[in-house]
Structure formats: structure tokens, C-alpha cells
Amino acid sequence: MNPVNQQKLEQEHQPQAIAKRLAKLPKRQNISDAILGGIDGCVTTFAIVSGAIGAGFSASVALILGFANLFADGFSMAISNYEANKAQQEFADNIRQTEAEHIKQVPEGEREEIRQIFQRKGFEGDTLENIVQTITQNKALWIETMLIEEHGIQSRPPEAVKAALTTFSAFLVVGAIPLIPFLIPSFDVHQQFLFSTVLAGLMFFFIGMLKSFVFAKPIIYSGFSTLLTGGTAAGLAFLTGYILRELFGI
Questions:
Q1: Are 156 and 233 within one domain?
Q2: Rounded to whole angstroms, how far apart are CA atoms 159 and 9?
């Protein structure tokens, strides 16, 4: 490791630095919501455009369909994300209430659950009993421990509104990019579609690169992987539009 990075890492793991970092509530990361919204926005919008051009429709029709889909599907996706996260929050709250009631009604049984949870982690003897005693002395800590260890639920669930807004914003911003060429009247429809294809490809590759930075994946591989996914979806839409045009003589 680079000496500078090693020194920085050691400084970040000094007792005072650790205490300061742990004193802050963990921030909810919305990177996955942004990536999901961006990819789906670009795939969906460009697929609509590809299908329209493949079917032989004019640029104006492709533009209208693209923008209509952009807002409708973006809103639908944001609401779905909101409802999913809201349901997760409500589920976690329900489990908290259930565990609180169990602690009230059968405290010894709940203590035994804590004991076996940490016994499975390798603790035993006096150390195990001290852990059980420490956790069960604090009801809030007791409930949160059960929430995480028994039910596998995050103690701090996602913020539903923030997640939905992030998804919607990413969907609109990235999804609008493939539509830009159709706003340029000096291009004919084939030039507009070609330009749109290039922009969509760049967006797919850029989002893939963004994933690589966030999740420490190889940049080129991640970029091309996302590009392949988006390109395949758009290709299927174009092919579908073309086949239907030929079959029905549109």
C-alpha cells in the first residue's frame, strides 16, 4: 500500500477518530437508487425511440412517445420504489413492536434467544453471559439486536421519499439524453437516430463506470457490461418495431 494511504488509514483508525465517526448516524446511500433510475430511464426511453424508428414512424412521433414515456414511467418507477421502501419501514416497525411485546411477556425466552445468537458467533462462558446481560439491560438495544440478528432487518431502513426522488430525478435526467437529437430539426430522422444511439451508448457506459467507482469494480468491464444490457434492450425494441411494421405493413 502507498505510504501516504497507509498513514491516512492509520489516522482514521485512531481511538478519537473512530469515536467521532461512530458518533455520527450512518448516512443513507442512494447510489443504488440513482443507478437503477438512470439505467431504467435510458433503457426505457431509448427502447421507445428504437421501436418507433424501427416501425418507420417519424421523428416527431418518436419524440412524443419518448417524452410521454419518460414522465409516466419515471413517475411509476419512483412510486414503486417509494412503496417498496415504505413497506420495508412498516415491516421493521411491526417487528419492533412484536419484539417489545415478546420481551414484556416472555423475557427469559428472549434472553435465551440473545444467548444462542451470540453463542453461534463463538462466545461462551462468562463472556457470553456478560454480553447477554449488557444487551438485555437496555431495552432499545435489546430490540435492535433482535431486529438485526434474528430477522436480518436494517436498524435504519431506507428513507422512502428520498429514495423515490433520487430514482425519479435520475430517470428523468438520463432518460432525456437519447431524446435530445430529435429536437434538432437540421438532422434527418436517420441522423437523429444515429446521434441518439451514440448518446444512449455513452450514458450506459458512463453509468457502468459510475458503478465501478462506487462498488470497486473494473471500470472497462462494468462500463461495457451496462452498455451491453442497454444495447440489447434497445436492439430488441428496434427489431420488434421493424418486424411488426413488416408484418402489418405500417
A1: no
A2: 30
Q: Using CA atoms, how far apart are residues 204 and 199, in angstroms rounded to an integer?
A: 9
Is the same domain home to 81 and 112? yes
Model pTM? 0.74
Asked if 135 and 114 count as a contact pair (C-beta separation under 8 A), the reply is: yes
Q: How far apart are CA 76 and CA 80, in angstroms?
A: 6
DSSP 155: S
Count of structural domains within the chain? 2
Q: How far apart are CA 242 and CA 236, in angstroms?
A: 10
Distance from C-alpha of 45 to C-alpha of 234, rounded to nearest angstrom: 9
Boundary residue ending a domain (136, 152, 177): 177
Domain that residue 243 falls in: 184-250
**Cell output for 154:** 436494517
Q: Which three cell numbers stand for residue 134?
A: 449488557
Distance CA 196, CA 214 (A): 27
Per-residue pLDDT of the chain (250 residues; tens, 9 = 90+): 566 677 777 787 787 877 777 666 555 567 778 888 888 888 888 888 888 888 888 889 989 999 998 999 999 999 999 998 898 888 889 999 999 999 999 999 999 999 999 999 999 999 999 999 999 999 999 999 999 988 888 766 668 888 899 999 999 999 999 999 999 988 888 899 899 989 988 988 888 887 776 666 777 888 888 888 777 877 787 788 778 777 876 6
Task: Please measure the distance between the N-terminal and C-terminal CA atoms of the chain and give it in whole angstroms.
Answer: 63
Q: How far apart are CA 5 and CA 20, in angstroms?
A: 20
Q: How far apart are CA 71 and CA 60, in angstroms?
A: 17
